[in-house]
Amino acid sequence: MVLYTILSVKSGHGKLNELLNSIKGISNANLFTVSVDQISVVVSDIKRADLITDRTNAIAYAGVVEILAQQFTLLPVRFGSMMESADAVIKMLEKNYQEIQQNLEKVENKFEFGLKIFCDSEKLKASLILKSEVGASTNINKIQEIKNTVFRDYVNKKLAAHRLEELLISHVDSVIAVIKGHLAQLNTISKFKKMLTETTIVDAVLLLDKERKDPLINVIEGLQKHYPGLNFVLTGPWPPYNFVDFTIK
């Protein structure tokens, strides 16, 4: 059987079953739950040989998780995850119950958002050079004793490139620090990656209380005005795909 998500169901089993009866899973399969105490796993009865991991099924899987996330606290399961039987699912829940419960408590009443920051790398670099207190002449002075003109030009280019890279990283670090300062006021859990490409300088995921969605949007809009040379793209809300911190035993 295919696993979709792990849910916290404190008193809503009837509500959950009613919702599952109204939607379909991968390959139009019926959805049902396997439960231990207050934790349920949403599954559909599909054999491993019949599961096709294509775009259509991935979208169907994500659609199920998205609908359930609107009404329940959940932990998405990796697309394509399967177990042989309901008994196997029950044993998994029993072995991992405490870790699952802790993760569910962490994401309860919270949304995940994605934040990407893009830039025109050439314009940003040019701006950083203009703002830098260290001009290109500094690098030239360091090696002015070198008599070989070709070698001197080569070293100058290397020094300038290295200095520009330092300026860029320093600037990105300062932007991230400012963002984290604002996020701290919203009690946000965040994970940041930087400099994925020359144009994608920040890629972050954020987890915060559902009622703080609008304040988060306001923060990002304010940051966009403060950094007009950057492009802030906020996506979500999403189920907490990036905040499941346990490995099934």
Low-confidence stretches: 134-146
Q: How many strand units?
A: 8
Name the beta content range.
15-25%
Share of residues in helices: 40-55%
Return the string of H and E elements: EHEEHEHEHHHEEHE
Q: For the largest beta sheet, what order do the strands appear in spatially?
A: 2-3-1-4
Provide a brief overview of the structure.
With 249 residues, this protein is α+β, with helices and mostly antiparallel strands. The chain has 7 helices and 8 strands, in the order E-H-E-E-H-E-H-E-H-H-H-E-E-H-E. The chain has 2 domains: 2-108; 111-243.
Explain what the structure shows.
The protein has 249 residues and is α+β, with helices and mostly antiparallel strands. It folds into two domains: 2-108; 111-243. The protein contains seven helices and eight strands. It has helices spanning 13-21, 55-69, 86-107, 121-131, 136-142, 149-185, 213-226, and strands at 2-8, 31-36, 39-44, 73-76, 110-119, 189-194, 200-209, 230-238. The strands form two sheets. The chain has a four-stranded antiparallel beta sheet with strand order 2-3-1-4. The protein has a four-stranded antiparallel beta sheet with strand order 6-7-5-8. The chain starts with a strand and ends in an 11-residue tail after the last strand. Mean pLDDT is 84; it is low at 134-146.
